[in-house]
Amino acid sequence: MPASIAAFADMRDVIDRMQEAQEQSIAASFERVETVKAQAVAAGELAQTKVKTATQVFLALGALGFLVMVTLLVKSGRSMASALGRALSFAKGITHGDLNQALDVQRNDEFGDLAKALDEMQTSMRDSMENIERAREADRQKTAELERAQVQQ
């Protein structure tokens, strides 16, 4: 029996060593799982940080683009309003008989076309008024000649 007890003790010793090796293997596996888990959490946090940064950059660029667009629209609107205001003032001057004013609008769009048309209209009206004035003066001279001729008769 002592041999069986010794064999049993050897067997128990082998089982204990196997159990200890298994526990060490399980502990090492848990450590690897925790390490991988920590790396995954760190990678997730890094990804969230990058997404947050990218979102902030995108929003900042969008806001900047919006401000540039609004600025251009305001400047364009002011430019159009200024050109239209000068054209309106020019037209009112013509309405009041001022045919010697100058309209200086240097644009290559519809407002420039309007300014050119108004300027041409003023030139045409001024030429017509000068022709009328010359005809009136010629008429006065003929009338004066007729009156002198009648007085002499």
Outline the structure in words:
By secondary structure, the protein is mostly helical. The chain contains two helices and no strands. It is rod-shaped and about 180 Å long. The mean pLDDT is 91.
Q: Which structural traits does this protein have?
A:
90% helix, 153 residues, mainly alpha, 2 helices
Briefly note the structural class of the backbone. mainly alpha
The level of helicity is: over 70%
E-strand count: 0
The string of secondary-structure elements, in order, is: HH
Question: What is the secondary structure topology, with strand pairs?
Answer:
Layout (H helix, E strand, L loop, with lengths): L1 H94 L14 H43 L1
What's a quick, concise take on this entry?
This protein has about 150 residues and is mainly α. The protein has helices at about 1-95, 110-150.
